[in-house]
Amino acid sequence: MTNTDSQVNELVLPAAEPEFVRRHSFIELSARERAMTFFDSGTARELLGSFDRIESPWLPLQDVTPQADDGCVVIRGKIGAENAVVVALEGAFQGGSVGEVSGMKCAAALDLATRDNERGVKTNAILLLETGGVRLQEANLGLAVTAEVMASIMNLRKHVPVVCVIAGTVGCFGGMSLAVGLASYIVMTREARLGMNGPEVIEQEAGVDEFDSKDKALIWAINGGDQRYQTGLVDFLVEDAVEKIVDATRACLKMGVPREHRSAKVGLFRKRVEALNPSAVWDNPSKLRESWTKEAQP
Amino acid sequence: MEVLEFTYPAKRKIESRAHVGVVGSGNLEVLLESSTDAVSHVRVRTSVNGFHDTWKAVLDRFFARFDGAVNIEINDAGASPGIVMLRLQQAVEKVEQ
Asked: How far apart are CA A239 and CA A227, in angstroms?
């Protein structure tokens, strides 16, 4: 018997290929590839790309190999026929840490968008954050520039929604988690984590009884995307698939500037913190979900 | 961190440029662009010291097959020789498309 075309196709493409194999993962992409997925085709152009060689002057002095874009990718173009800027931090380079250069690229990109909006040219902004926070090798400069990023988000969010995407697997920690708190909308996956201090830092400072950084179930029950979504700290929880993340982000842009930003709801969050009993044992993450969602619905 | 420099003879001009890779653990980034003289220049910044001979062996093999005049800048975070060769070939594939 000879091989027909259909027999060959059957061998190459089994019909029962599971959905997760065909899915186009967002997490597996580099920062540059991630940023590119959002744009209308043929409209994207990178600002201060690798060949501009705006890299960290501080890392080589400390015997650390720098990266030509300092781990921050800035791309301008059109998303849904509107102007947009996407800033992506590369989690694989120094844990996505924010240095003087990478942080300033981020802040300057947001400020450019603010200037455009002030001149009547609507420009949306999306931040793709995979970061452990401030780069320790650049200490105070990293802290200062994180404050710049936060100020830039505050200025821009008056004009257009600022959307933050935390896809994983690094997650978003440290100073940049505070910046995320200022965002108009936050999109997360189940794999991603969001928190101020990382699990290792908490264990180191407060002891393993307080937080066991080897207990992955515990970490995700507190910092994981699902818990952050169920407690109302995140707006969209999506699967790790390019189309789903892009769709959710575009939906955020369509929703426009929220009437009240999450970070402006000081009364709500103060009440929540006051109601917490710090000596109680929280053996189940769903308890926090229940108490917070109950009170959130008036 | 160690900085290594190499030069290789070249036969033809390369018009475009390519960037591949990321400076992540066990990985590297390669910036490849055309050289202004008829010689290829390679500058390596690597996080692992003491591997000059290994870098030379990998680059000797690469330039035994590739004769374009290029400037190559490598930022390395401890990639193995196999990964280095793959990244170089990936960059060449991009400029020769």
From this structure: 14
Nearest chain B Cα distance for residue A255, angstroms: 35
- What is the least distance, in Å, from the CA of B3 to any CA of chain A? 10
DSSP string, A156-175: HTTTS-EEEEE-SSS-B-TH
Q: Check B19 against A92: CB less than 8 A apart.
A: no
Per-domain boundaries in chain A: 17-194+234-259
CATH topology of domain A17-194+234-259: 2-enoyl-CoA Hydratase; Chain A, domain 1 (3.90.226)
Q: pTM of the entire structure?
A: 0.92
C-alpha to C-alpha distance for A242 and A236, rounded to whole angstroms: 14
Give the residue from A28, A50, A58 with the most B CB atoms within 10 Å of its CB, the best one to mutate.
A50
pLDDT on residue A210? 87
Which residues on chain B are in Cβ contact (under 8 Å) with A94?
23
Task: Quote ipTM for the complex.
Answer: 0.95
Name residues whose C-beta falls within 8 Å of residue A34's C-beta, 6 or more positions apart in sequence.
A26, A88, A128, A167
Write out chain A residues lying below 8 Å of B27, CB-based.
Answer: 92
Confidence at A170, pLDDT banded by 50, 70, 90: very high
The model's pLDDT over A37-80, given as tens digits with 9 standing for 90+, comes to: 999 999 999 999 999 999 999 999 999 999 999 999 999 999 99
- Give the CATH architecture of domain B2-95: 2-Layer Sandwich (3.30)
Does the CB of A100 have a partner CB in chain B at under 8 Å? no
